[in-house]
Amino acid sequence: NTVMTQSPTSMFISVGDRVTMNCKASQNVGTNVDWYQQKTGQSPKLLIYGASNRYTGVPDRFTGSGSGTDFTLTISNMQAEDLAVYYCLQYNYNPDTFGAGTKLELK
Amino acid sequence: EVQLQESGPGLVKPSQSLSLTCSVTGYSITSNYWGWIRKFPGNKMEWMGYISYSGSTSYNPSLKSRISITRDTSKNQFFLQLNSVTTEDTATYYCARGEPPQYWGQGVMVTVSS
Questions:
Q1: Does A91 contact chain B (CB < 8 Å)?
Q2: Of the candidates A42, A95, A101, which has its C-beta nearest B61's C-beta?
Q3: A87 — contact with chain B (CB < 8 Å)?
Q4: Residue pLDDT, tens place only, B33-47
Q5: Tens digits of per-residue pLDDT, A5-47?
Q6: CA distance B12 to B8
């Protein structure tokens, strides 16, 4: 299976920070990577599809980039409502595989 | 607006079968792809499989011998059956629209325990 290695596992951040998290694929997945946000007690919500496309209604402070094996999700001007666990997912190879998640917590 | 709602037993005994239903409103399951994903305690997520608009299926090879995804188009529902469960199948189970998953239900927690 394609392993998606997410880093860091957790981050302590402040409102207003610029946040960058990464996902590294064990093989070339092109741009077939999505990013999801999961807040406590809620289901995951799609943020970014195709590595860099913002899903409907997602604020423009969320930006996805990357291709091949290295992918990044950036949150500019972090808001308190963005506290969540973020997951990457590759769907280039069967089975789809998720990263282990990056948890954002307040300092 | 599409809505997905999982339902089923919250407790299953080891060696038995886990059966869940995903009820869909606001969108026909004869369009798009409809899948199941689970989240284990500790946050690990696993894609389990999907059923397509035509009824074809695709499963995670790690589950292939135990999993079945079916549907009832007259009720706009699709189903997950996972056989021979163990405690390692304890998880929150989500149904979702799309492949890759685009829109998720709220999830249902299933515990496997005697």
A1: yes
A2: A95
A3: yes
A4: 999 999 999 899 999
A5: 999 999 999 999 999 999 999 999 999 999 999 999 999 999 9
A6: 10
